[in-house]
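A further point concerns the way the authors explain their paired sequence and structure data. An entry of this sort, consisting of the sequence and the corresponding backbone structure tokens, reads as follows:
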Amino acid sequence: MSSTLTCEVRSPMLPYRLTCLGHPELRGPDGDPVRFRTRKHLALLIYLAMHPGQPHRRDRLATLLWADADMDEARHSLATALSVLRGRLGADAIDASRDTVSLLTGRVLTDLPALDAENLDDPDLAPLGPFLDEFDLSDAPDFQRWRDGTHARLLPALCACLVRRIDRCRRTGDARRMETLAHQLHRIDSLVEEGARALIEARALAGDRIGALRVFDRWRLELAEELGAVPSAELSRMADRLRRRGLDTPTPVQLAPVPTEHWKEREFIGRGAEYGVCYAAWERVQKSDPRHLLIRADSGLGKTTLVERLVTSVALEGASVARVPCYELERELPFGVIGGLVTQLLDLPGASATPPEQLAELGRLVAKVRQRWPSLPEPLPTVGEGARIQFSDAVLSLLTCLAEEHPVVVVVDDIHLSDATSLAVLHLLLRRIEEVPIMVLMTTSNRLEQEAPPARRFAENADSLNLTLLSMGPLPAVHGEALLGVLLAEDSDPGPTVRRTLLAGAMGNPMILELLVADWRRRGDASLALSLGAMTARTDGPPVEAFRRVVDGTLAALDAEARAVVQLGAILGQRLNDLSMYTLVDLPVARTMRAMSALAAHRVLRDAGSHLEFANDYLRGQCYVTMAAPMRRMLHSLVADRLLAEDGADQPIPGLEVAWHLVRGDRLPEAVPYLL
């Protein structure tokens, strides 16, 4: 005879979660909140959970929470509270004897381990606040003292944890979360400078320069009143750079400006990993270990937005920044890009320390040099390859003098559209930059067939140039949905069908998504995204055809004045913001500005801080090619005449720019002297 013994194996109960850092709250294994009728029952659980498995004398617990009652009544209240806890947590959760009480280890988990969390990218990281925030028991003074003492003990760890989280957000460009964390830190200790700095940075990255300065001024006053102290020199300089408003000045200044207003209507979503690579390179540059980046992406994927986000952050931290775009329409202009870069570098702190002979060499091609320093000596005679090397030496000397004042960040957008001479100079500069805080950021297309050999040479020699290659693909679906939510924030919900159609039409391209949303606002069911079946087709390659159709549809929706401005602007290039030029198409300043505002609303132009620019070069190119050839020639010729009329005034006109417009205006014989 045999018998079979069976036993029931009980799975361990999932733990309850108790929030202590902030307003206290208990949640069950299913995530639902567990309520208590009186605060003292929750207070008892908190005290036991802070020391799980540790026996506590009943007399101590009774006087801790019921000090105003006699001992018998207090012990009776304690017994009632323990019964309530068993009902909420399970009968075996409380181990009680006649004299002691303890909480079963593992049954209730607090959020205190979050203070030592290493995975700062975990989206489920709970917000942090003061220990038992706003949890007062006025008739339990012993508990109040215990709470205050525990808060004081945890305060350094709390602040350090929030500072680590803020620094992580700074490294990924997540300004929204950084601002949330800064507010949490401010509530815990309003005098911590890291919290004030994070709030200032977050406001600046949101385009709220005035708000950032108000944060600084309030904190500075509070610091003086409470401690009789002043902000650090680093934070004071950050505020000074913000006060400069990012406006260009005619003479060198001690602090470089930080333009921030262009972030007011722009979001930075889904590029945290790429931003982290860029920020890591910047940290090495700050230690005089030059690092450079070449960012590859198709048009509209956000490479310029990524660079501008980094530029704003590093400028807040003290960098001097110069940025020059490259345009396909001007790639025939020798030294055009490097000349534009030098023009910007001359306005940065430290430029006047460049040796006169090097400035004279720069003045050979950059008229602004001679205008600022008219007594410079004549440059040394040179021809051929020697001229390029000599000019490169002069640019490097200028950069080195600037870097002695502040770290220097140089941005060259769309190098695949640059003239070959400028690329050769840039290549030589990257080879020779050593042990100085200089960083060069370049962007280019992901399509290798668009690149000329001089542009490809950067990637081929990346190791010897201290160059990191960074490729950007389409925006992941989850981030595309987040961006769409931001773009539609001020609209009524269009419904899931329209959302899916817009996202499918964009194919992970943020700019196409912005244009499609703007088109849907204007035209509703007749919009491109809803009317063109081809827009929803997924492809493995870049959405060139979709981009072209969206851009053409956007341009067709413009009124006559906006179309005139955008067509002339495509020809003007870097003179896009010269409002006097638009009188060539019979538009006074007021109407030009109104048309530019309309173009910004259509996402054709965007705010770049101190000026407007085309959203990207593809848009500019489409505006250019959609003009009839005779109109293009006429406008180029009119621009050339205007430049010739203005030459010799306060701002000398570069001869190569004049020559380029004359050539495009079919006036080659007149262009020859300026080419020479």
Remarks:
- Confidence is low (pLDDT under 50) at residues 1-11, 246-253, 533-542.
- The first strand starts at residue 16 and ends at 19.
